[in-house]
């Protein structure tokens, strides 16, 4: 029985070689089913390129159709079809607007006369709002008018301004100042003036009772003993009629 399975060395080699070939053949078959060949990969890549180029061509054709249907109008044709939107009219309107703006700007930059203006005029000046404008008009009315631009700095909310800035936007007409009659004004009228205090007013009234009229600013200074700076401030406002 053992003799049936007894092979020579040559026969064993042949058997081993045969088994090896069978194993390789089986493995090749399995691998070829799972992994596509390089030729298959190349064919698939070529197909993808062809599809991409076809899409690009389709997009280019669509754009060409759109461009072919688009219409362009010259200025003349557009102006004739749409007269309300004429190019020349638009240019003229823009010029007129610029001219109006320039005129308005020049008007706004004109200097303002402080003794005749109102709050709206003052509010045209940069940094001068409604509150500051109101304060200026109120102080002007108490004074009887401004005699010098530096008087604006006597208003609390304007004390930080420089006189050079005020000179750019304001000027004063002293002829518009309302005089205070020192010989006929009563206590209430005199005390309302910012430069007159209670002591000064009583002194004036007492002097008038004893001596009659005050004839000049010099006599006023002598009877009231007012200091020189106060006399300079009061001089534009006093009348000795």
Question: Layout of helices and strands, plus pairs?
Answer:
Elements: H1 9-34, H2 38-69, H3 75-81, H4 87-108, E1 112-113, H5 119-122, H6 130-143, H7 163-169, E2 170-171, E3 180-181, H8 187-191, H9 198-211, H10 217-224, H11 228-234, E4 238-239
Parallel strand pairs: 1-2, 3-4
Structure description:
The protein is mainly alpha-helical and 241 residues long. Among the domains are: 65 residues, Orthogonal Bundle (DNA polymerase, domain 1); 60 residues. It is built from eleven helices and four strands, in the order H-H-H-H-E-H-H-H-E-E-H-H-H-H-E. Strands 1-2 form a two-stranded parallel ribbon. A two-stranded parallel ribbon has the order 3-4.
Q: Under the CATH scheme, which architecture of one domain would be assigned?
A: Orthogonal Bundle
Q: Count the strands?
A: 4
Class of secondary structure makeup = mainly alpha
- The helix content is 55-70%
Q: Biggest sheet, in brief?
A: 2 strands, parallel
Spans of 5+ residues with little confidence (pLDDT < 50)?
none
Gross morphology: rod-shaped
């Amino acid at each position: 029985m053992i003799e049936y399975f007894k092979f020579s060395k040559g026969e064993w080699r042949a058997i081993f070689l045969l088994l090896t070939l069978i194993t390789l053949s089986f493995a090749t078959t399995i691998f070829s089913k799972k992994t596509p060949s390089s030729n298959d990969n190349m064919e698939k890549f070529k197909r993808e390129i062809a599809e991409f180029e076809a899409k690009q061509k389709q997009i280019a054709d669509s754009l060409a159709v759109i461009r072919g249907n688009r219409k362009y109008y010259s200025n003349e044709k557009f102006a004739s079809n749409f007269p309300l939107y004429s190019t020349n009219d638009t240019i003229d309107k823009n010029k007129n607007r610029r001219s109006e703006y320039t005129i308005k700007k020049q008007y706004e930059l004109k200097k303002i006369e402080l003794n005749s203006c109102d709050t709206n005029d003052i509010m045209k000046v940069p940094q001068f709002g409604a509150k500051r404008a109101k304060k200026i008009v109120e102080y002007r009315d108490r004074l009887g008018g401004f005699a010098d631009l530096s008087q604006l700095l006597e208003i609390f909310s304007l004390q930080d301004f420089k006189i050079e800035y005020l000179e750019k936007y304001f000027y004063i007409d002293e002829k518009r100042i309302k005089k205070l009659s020192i010989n006929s004004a009563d206590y209430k009228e005199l005390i309302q003036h910012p430069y007159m205090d209670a002591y000064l007013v009583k002194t004036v009234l007492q002097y008038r009772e004893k001596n009659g009229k005050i004839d000049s600013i010099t006599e006023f200074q002598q009877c009231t003993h007012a200091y020189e700076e106060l006399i300079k401030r009061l001089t534009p406002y006093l009348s000795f009629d």
